[in-house]
Amino acid sequence: MAVPVVSHPSFIYLPMRLSTNQNPKTLTGKSYQWLLLILWTVLGCGLRFLNLTAKPPWTDEFATMVFSLGNNYDSVLLNQVISPEMVLQPLRLNRDATIFDVISLLLDNDNHPPLYFVLAHWWMNLWPGNGEYISVWAARSLPALLGGLSIPAVYYLARIAFGSAKVAHLSAIMMAVSPYGVFIAQEARHYTLAILFVIFSLCCLLRCAKHFQKKTAIPMSIVFLWLMINCLGLATHYFFSLTLAAEALTLILILYYSIKNSLLISSKTGIPSGIFKKNCWRLALVAFGTITTAIAWVLLLVPHDYGKGMTEWIHQDNFNFIAFISPVFQLMAAWVTMIALLPIESSFLPLAIFSGLLMLLFFVWAIPKLNRGLKMGWQNRHFRLGIGVLLGFIVSAIVLFFAITYCLGLDITRGARYSFVYFPAVPVILGVILAGFLEKKFAIFSSNWKVLKVFEQPKIIISIIIFMGFLSCLTITFNLGYKKYYLPNQLVEVIESSSSHPVLIATTHQNLVQTGEMMGIAWQLQKKNLPVKLQFLLAHHTLKMPEIATITLEKTVNKLTLPLEVWTVNFKAPVRLNNCRVDAQSFPHINGYNYQRYDCQ
Questions:
Q1: Among 332, 355, 366, CA closest to 471
Q2: Which of 147, 285, 536, 601 is the most exposed place for a label (fewest CB within 10 A)?
Q3: Contact, 178 vs 150, CB < 8 A?
Q4: 597: three-class secondary structure by DSSP
Q5: pLDDT at position 11, please?
Q6: Phi, psi at 50, each rounded to 5°
Q7: How many CB atoms lie within 10 A of CB 420?
């Protein structure tokens, strides 16, 4: 079938040609639908793979790479001087490792379920080399690819929710140009795989909601498919349980609404119908199977010392006013970046200020329009169930975030990446909002100023929002937004420009986080040809006895040949060095690394 000619000059207008409820087979052609979806997917993949290796890997990514290779950190010796090559030893390809080694290492040394790491193990072994370091591209390309696959997955989710090709395409576009989606996809972590399972689980939730609405029985195929998806999601990330809890709350709201409005009550007997009872039993089967899987994970697979000190950063220690209100703003920041994020983190202050003002103007302009678009979507009775379910899911997830933060003292809002548990529902809601702009009843703001009238045209509104997302994705890919917390490349440049004698980089060590911090430095060093010899010392200590690290550093330096430069990096213990003086010059601040130079003669 011939592809219709597009009359608009911009590809952004392509989905606007689709009427809200038209049949794609009869009006636009199935091939045209696929062509558009491929276009959005290619756009999204291009943004996710752009500058994929430009940003330095950080501690969590190193952990993913090490465990996925089937290696451990044992070769990084503690309390003695080691070379950069020894620090990077766990990153060498290991063809002899199996998936059973990967699973065993995770259970003994990490705090994450194994599914993604098993897939990453197979993926990384596709790349050539033996005994060489794994490349950052190989590690990050899998999540980038999975992030690209989330675009057609969101399209399918929107089709289930609203039955509209136009809404589905606009949802896919918003997923493709979501800066948050690009941020998540450019990290060698498991979040994009978890996002796919969130999408698939939401598809099942919406299918079930529609069966309740139509008073038809939920097929057993959906029951078992949903159960399998939930199990795989839990095997990918434990926070997927928050997705399931939010879905459970949403289902409860659906059932309450249905019973309150007598949608599931027999008109003859006044009691719940047989279909209602059957559906409740089938949902109970999904819940029972999912909960059983979760309990099995906790009892059999989750280590008793879960976290191994690596989750202390989310514990709330200070209960002052700032700590009380911070979770609200931290979660709001994640919401904002799902739509737009300009270079507000740029080191060039004028650019940061301009970007901040532009973002403020954008949201002041966009929020009223998004609200009007949502109201237009709600007026379409065919869209109400999908909007209600997805908004109920998002609100339920947010309530859970605040409950965990304020009731349990675990501030999970500090990690923007944890919002993956509800993120896929956001571009779908945005898709139905943008589709609402194209309704004939959409009110256009009247003004005597022609310039303002231009910005009130529905197609212009949609184009601006999508283009803002596109620019925001470029902000992420060029490391001007969601900047890496660790910048070892900058520290290496400082050491390179300041050192004229052999260098010892010393840090205190408690867990794998500190090892990853030193790996970041060593990774950058392999790209350099420093004129001086450089070595590392990881001085292990317990939280209650930091003076052990002080003694270890002092004894180590006393054994080394002078002159020597000691650079303490994130050294969380007192420093006591004989024959060494503190360098009084002012060094630049570097994200992730607190450091000090000592000149030992």
A1: 355
A2: 601
A3: no
A4: strand
A5: 52
A6: -65, 130
A7: 26
